[in-house]
Amino acid sequence: MTRVLTQPLVPFVDTLPVPPRLLAPQHGGRLTVAIRAGAHRFHRDLPESRIWGFDGTVPGPTIEAERAQPVTLEWRNELHGPLPVVVTIAPEATDADGVPVQAVPGLSGGAPDEHPTALAGHTVVHLHGGLTPASYDGWAENLFAPGQPAVFHYPMDQRAALLWYHDHVMGVTKYDVYAGLAGLWIIRDERERELGLPEGPPFELPLLIQDRNFDVDDQERLTGQLVHKTDPDVMEAFAPFTTVNGKVWPVLDVQPATYRFRVLNGSNARTYQLVLFGDEAPELERITQIGTDHGLLRAPVSVPPDGLVLASAERADLLVDFSDLEPGSELTLLNTAAAPFDGSAFPAADASDAADLDGLLPYPQVMRFRVIQDQVTRRKIPHQLATDYRSPTPEALAGAPRRAIALVERELDDAPNMLTMRELEIAPDDHTGPLLTLTEGGQTTRYRTVASHFEDATTFFPMLGEYEVWQLINLTGDTHPIHLHLDPFQILSRRAIRYEIRQDGIDDFDLAASITLGRDPDDQLDHAIDDNERGLKDTIRVNPHEIVELAVRFTTYAGRYMYHCHILEHEDRDMMRPFVTMPADLMPFMA
Ligand SMILES: [Cu+2]
Description:
Low-confidence stretches: none
Distance between the termini: 60 Å
Strand content: 35-45%
Shape: globular
Largest sheet: 8 strands, mixed, barrel
Oligomer: single chain
Radius of gyration: 23 Å
Bound molecules: copper (II) ion
Mean pLDDT: 96
Number of helices: 5
């Protein structure tokens, strides 16, 4: 399929913006950020868009904090409606020309949904990756109306990392983040400074990647009005235009030097497979990854041969070497991941031909780097990075509680499919209801479902200080980035499964399926763990036909937290569940 759409916006004409920096130590650790409506220009040739933003900007200011220096932040909600996003479901998945509606601007015949327009601006902010007491973690139902004070305390007692803050309102996170409510948060520490890593511009820059779509007028001209459009078959919004730090396809002039890019995929649903492309071929060897979600890896790693995969909320700390390039040289960052993403490979060598309308990827362009004449500076990359963590030992995991969660898609008659997470418990011998069986090496474990929706009773009560093993079992056709609030985790395994879901086996609560460890004959994925996933993670991709096992140890704060899929349309409906961390001395008193 080589259908290609013309580009309604000129790529690589806007300079990459650097979000304003708010350095907490300069303010004695006390910050105020207003959450308000504003206007933002996403591209030189676009009219201004109405947005909701932290301090009224897209993205919000980058907050920088020092490890162990607490930050007290007043999130001042000054929002007022209406939501600056037109939300619609197009009547057909493809337009009259057979082009998928999600690949083109405009409403594609969809009527604006009146309910999102009526949103008055309740909000709650979550610091993603923050080791934050429960009362300040941004529980999705603890909302603040415009004018109601919200002063949150962030202890910052955690290692250096790129975090991000964003709205987390129950059911509408997908609209609020899309409207602009997201910003970066960097924690710094002595270990990073010992390594001499670039800190701040010009050589350290954040790259916050988000896809966006806009409405068109009668003459098909883009109006700048933000559009969240889905179609009858796909419940996630995959928008055609890629923005970096709030600009569509920007360009960055770079010196012949090594740059540190702090990359976050802040898109609602789109996964990126990023390839740095030169004149005719990929130049991935220029990139060294030194950190992931929760900061430095133990040692630098290369980017995987097909490119760097980042699902929603995943981060990468990259060193990119431009030092050998002549002035005028250009490198383009391309995305080769089709949507919805299912883990499929796409060769980096073909990245410039990655446009794929059926894969909802009309424009693979992300941004461009242009080398300017300047002094050449080379930087040696240290070979040992983090020294403060190791993999949990088999002894530490031997008695660890094991928790199993099945990810399932439930078909509905008169509404888009619903995605849920089913918490499982080993079924008693006399259990007669629907079962999920998991067979491994001749041994079968029988599970029953104990929770399916966010509001079902809490079943996970992890004890502080103790390792747990969580098993995420994907019984859907797409990759889900699963995020745990509070402490980071480490991946233990990623294994292929084959499975059968019984006829009508997915109902509102129960699940009847049989799963066997081992590869399905039609399964093309390699189910490997990338080197860059062997660090401290808070969001992990669970691909189709796969069980991911992770080890997590909650350490500091007791209380009610959430874990969820970070595809925002899934999180909102209904891939989110609570867990309650408990201090050991209270466990005997649990009923
Ligand atoms: Cu999901």
